[in-house]
Design goal:
With 136 residues, the protein is an all-alpha fold. It has one domain. The protein is built from six helices and no strands. It is elongated, with a radius of gyration of 24 Å. 18% of the residues are buried. About 4% of the residues have low confidence.
Amino acid sequence: MDTRINKIILYVCSIVNFISCRSVDKKVDYRKVYVDEFKITYFKKCLQYGFNTHEILLLNENDGSQIVEPILGNYSQIDSIAKNKILKEVREFQREVATRAEGANKIPVYKICLCQYESKEIDSLANEFIDKILPK
């Protein structure tokens, strides 16, 4: 009987130890989650305003890359940043079209949005935005 109790205690302690170690290993960096959420939202809005079609709205609605509940609150600020940046890039591209070869006048929306997504500027904007909602 004594051996059986020892085995049960050992088993329970092993489970508790295993669970506690797993929770330590899986700490979530919420700041990184928020920055990623900001950037994905920004990227989707950039594509939306760059292509300006109904189809991109449907693709964005059906995309599962974002968290279901908006963790950043109201996305209108991200929306306006993305809109202003992509429209500025499009205007600059259209000014340069006259100097391009025929057939090279299509706006490279994916390239513009991906370059912005990877830029330090968007990282900085994301961190500024996060600083307003997340205590340090």
